[in-house]
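I need you to check the entry underneath: sequence plus fold tokens. Let me know what the token row says about the fold.

>
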Amino acid sequence: MDPEVWRWVWLAAAAAFIVGEITVAGTFFLLPFGLGAAVAAVFAFSGAGSATGWFIFVVVSLVATLAVRPIVRRLDATGDPLKVGAERLIGQEGVVISDLSADAERMGAVRVGREEWHAESADGADLASGTEIEVVDIRGTRAIVRPVDTVPSTHSE
């Protein structure tokens, strides 16, 4: 293949690997190959031959893979990624701002953080305004909640 073509092959490969890393869920699997192809493209544009380009691609990709492994291990050790959307509310505590009733015609509301949600009790029990709750599920636009078991303070003033 013409050395002029390798410049564009390496550039296209670098772009494909980097875009693939951005769009595919995972932890830095394609990024080292993108870096290897980018460095090979720089060498190709400086006049290096195809064998040199391949050597550079393999070496830089290997070194980059070894360099990101500790980062990947640390990210994997932290557990589940942060939840997004309404799912982030599951497990959060809040307060009832409009009585929750077992009556399907009357839907109550809760405040979780700064957000207000239509809500219903997980067990169908009535919950009065001011009751502290925990979100156990989100169904559509409704938060499914349960009262938080609070232990009264026993210290005297």
User: Anything to note?
Assistant: The CA atoms of residues 87 and 138 lie 7 Å apart. The chain has two domains: 3-77, 85-147. The radius of gyration is 28 Å. The helical segments are 3-23, 31-45, 50-77.
